[in-house]
Amino acid sequence: MALAACATQGDANGGNGLYDPFERVNRATFEFNIALDDALGKPIALSYRTAFPKPVRDGIRNVADNLYSPVTFVNDLLQGEFARARITLTRFFINTTAGIGGIADVAKDIGMPGHREDFGQTLAAWGLGPGPYIVVPFLGPQTTRNLGGRAVDIGVSPFSYVLAAHDVEWVGFAVTAINAVDQRERLIEAVDGLRKTSLDFYAAARSSYWQARLAEIHNGRLPPAVPGDDDVDIDLDGDELEADPDGPPPNRRSNDNRVAAKVR
Predict the structure, then answer these.
(1) Cβ of 136: how many Cβ atoms within 10 Å?
(2) What DSSP letter does each residue of 46-93 carry, written as one string?
(3) Tell me: the pLDDT tens digits for 182-206?
(4) Are 81 and 115 spatial neighbours (Cβ–Cβ below 8 Å)?
(5) pLDDT tens readout for residues 76-99
(6) What letter would DSSP give residue 230?
(7) Distance between CA 251 and CA 80 in Å, rounded?
(8) I want to staple 99 with a disulfide (CB 3.0 to 4.6 A). Which of 104, 122, 134, 173 is the partner?
(9) For 79, how many CA atoms within 13 A lie in the half-sphere containing its CB?
(10) For residues 88 and 82, what is the distance between their CA atoms, to the nearest angstrom?
(11) How far is CA 144 from CA 61, 94, 237, 244, 260, in A?
(12) Is the model's pLDDT at 210 over the cut of 80?
């Protein structure tokens, strides 16, 4: 929370875009993370893909998404997105019951797709700038706003308290680890493609992170004219992100509406 409170939009880059004042350190950390991913992350993700067929992986992903629903619900409310909060709560009850603990996304099948919100997005909706860009060992790219938001989300999740009350905190760590492997598996081709085609992998990854983050903040739609270092548009699900040329993104009151997403 202290990190989030200190996060402000930097002016070293002319007051616009993602502020990267620690680039030298960030690049060194980025290289460390890449080496770790080459040694462990990608091989584990490939083994996970080989060991579990897609329906099983989808079920694991659905359970993780369902467990995250209370965090999304709280952030929906904090952002004043009451209609989306109602959908989140309804999805949680449907998928927990009819979906057998969330293994099946029954709500999506009946026309109620889900979404994710976090406290970093809530801070953006409240008008707080992203703050400096930092690359965190093991966690990867973040802004100080997002990093502070992650800490709040951990405290918001009711499951952490339930597990602690029953002295089975290891279950939470196991779920987090499995979710990380699943996310890496989804990004195998996207990361490989970005690495092969970019002249500066660090700059391209930074640009892709920022565009993906903007899409999350703006409910899946990029604000118009969001350039990147290598013009790469990648979101966390491996889908392309496209700006809406006809107007601003809906239902957001973020500082990010008022800044260009020019990553330096």
Answers:
(1) 13
(2) HHHHHHS-HHHHHHHHHHHHHHHHHHHHHHHHHTT-HHHHHHHHHHHH
(3) 999 999 999 999 999 999 999 999 9
(4) no
(5) 999 999 999 999 999 999 999 999
(6) S
(7) 9
(8) 104
(9) 31
(10) 10
(11) 27, 35, 23, 27, 18
(12) yes
Give the SS3 label for residue 105: coil
pLDDT at 222: 62
CA dist 135 and 201 (Å) reads 13
Summarize the confidence of residues 132-151 as an average pLDDT. 95
37 and 181 in contact (C-beta within 8 Å)? no
Tokens in use for 245?
Answer: 């040329």
Largest CA distance in the chain: 52
Residue 143 near residue 20, CB atoms below 8 Å: no
Residue 259 tokens read as 């800044």
Of 13, 263, 261, 262, nearest to 124 (Cα)? 261
**What is the spatial distance between Cα 158 and Cα 141, in angstroms, rounded to a whole number?**
26
At CA 246, angle to CA 243 and CA 252, rounded to 5? Answer: 65
Spatial distance between the Cα atoms of 38 and 191, rounded to a whole number of angstroms:
11
Distances (CA, A) of 221 to 24, 43, 185, 228, 247: 31, 32, 24, 16, 10
What residue has token string 């083994």? Answer: 47
Q: What is the pTM for the complete model shown?
A: 0.77
Cα torsion angle, 117, 120, 123, 125, sign: negative
Query: What are the C-alpha distances in Å from 146 to residues 38, 119, 131?
Result: 25, 8, 9
Question: CA 259 → CA 9, 81, 217, 231, 244, distances in Å?
Answer: 9, 23, 13, 18, 16
Mean of all residue pLDDT scores within the chain: 83
